[in-house]
Amino acid sequence: WAGHVDDPEAGNEPRDGAGPEEYRVPAPVGGEEFFDMALLPMSSLKGWVEHSMPYLLLLLGVFVYQHRVGVAFGAWLVVVLYFANLHLRISVALREQRTVFSLVLILCGALVNILIAHLLFASSDLDRSLLLLPPPEPLSLVDLFFVALVNDASVRLATIAVKAGLLVAWRTTAQWRHLRHWLSMVELSTTLYRHWLPLPLWFSYFSSEDFGPRLSFLLTIAYLAFKLYMLIEFTAAFFDNTLAFFRGQMQYGRYLAPKEAAMPP
User: Fold this and answer.
1) Exposure winner among 1, 121, 169, 203, fewest CB in 10 A?
2) Is the pLDDT of residue 20 over 70?
3) Which of these, 228, 83, 92, lies nearest to 162 by C-alpha position?
4) Mean pLDDT on 37-53
5) H or E, element range at 185
6) Torsion of CA 229, 231, 236, 242, to 10 degrees
7) Positive or negative, the Cα torsion across 132, 136, 138, 139?
8) Mind listing the pLDDT tens digit for each residue in 232-247?
9) DSSP string spanning 82-105?
10) Cα(14)–Cα(7) distance, rounded to whole angstroms?
11) Per-residue pLDDT tens for 71-114?
């Protein structure tokens, strides 16, 4: 280590960055170095996901192949729901674009898809679930999700069919205010029914003996507590809107004050 001269006024200590490794004082950990150390678990998780992605895709492909009929029909129901709801909203909002042919087409398409779903998956006991009855035998988690999703889509399609029928019936009359009230009541009723619909399925699944008596009891109580809390709010809103409907009051918004009504537009 030649060519180094220590400064006599600095206590005969080597300057920062000079001298062999044993004379250098490491900088304290902080700032960027601490941030890099904190990101180590995230980088490890990212690497694990990248290495596991091919195997996850293979498992997903096997799952889709084993349930190809259900997956294909579920995708078809999503497409039908999207376009039927889109055209129905246009028909409700724009009277000029409302035609009897399009409304009848929406009505028939919704009913046909509901019929196909119950005929194609008759072994899943979809009718019992629509009647809020528990399944005769405990379902697996995949079958439970499938039955809940198909029944929810069926109720949505039935809602669209009823609304389309109301639009056809009220097309030649001038009572548009009553039509809006009826459409709101149909939406509120089916929304409340859809929240009650999966209750018997999940109650039967959590109360089964597969989890053991204690865990089944805790899961059932937790599910009922969360579900009933939501159902109380929706039920109260439904009864309030039902009373407003039969009394001829507004279901949404508020009436203008006299000062607001006197103001120029």
Assistant:
1) 1
2) no
3) 92
4) 68
5) helix 176-196
6) 170
7) negative
8) 888 887 887 777 777 6
9) HHHHHHHHHHHH-STT--HHHHHH
10) 8
11) 888 889 889 999 988 888 888 777 777 788 888 899 999 999 99
The pLDDT value given to residue 157: 93
CA distances from 217 to 136, 206, 211, 222 (A): 20, 8, 9, 9
| Contact of 103 with 91, CB cutoff 8 Å | yes
- Looking at the predicted structure, is the pLDDT value of residue 134 above 60? yes
Q: What long-range pairs does 87-91 form, CB within 8 A, spacing at least 24?
A: 88/160, 88/163, 88/164, 88/167, 91/164, 91/167
* pLDDT greater than 80 at residue 2: no
Q: CA 28, CA 161: separation in Å to the nearest integer?
A: 70
CA–CA separation, 205 vs 221, rounded Å?
13
DSSP symbol at 197: T
Confidence of residue 35 (pLDDT cuts 50, 70, 90): very low
What are the tokens at 184? 């709101």
Please check the confidence at residue 6 and state whether its pLDDT lies above 80: no
Scan for tokens 């198909």, then name that residue: 150
- The two tokens of residue 66 are 């084993």
Residue pair 148/141 in contact by the 8 Å Cβ criterion: no
The burial of 22, by beta-carbon neighbours within 10 Å (0-12 exposed, 13-18 middle, 19 or more buried), is given as exposed
Can you tell me the distance from the alpha carbon of 231 to that of 219, in angstroms, rounded to the nearest whole number?
Answer: 18
DSSP state of 255: P
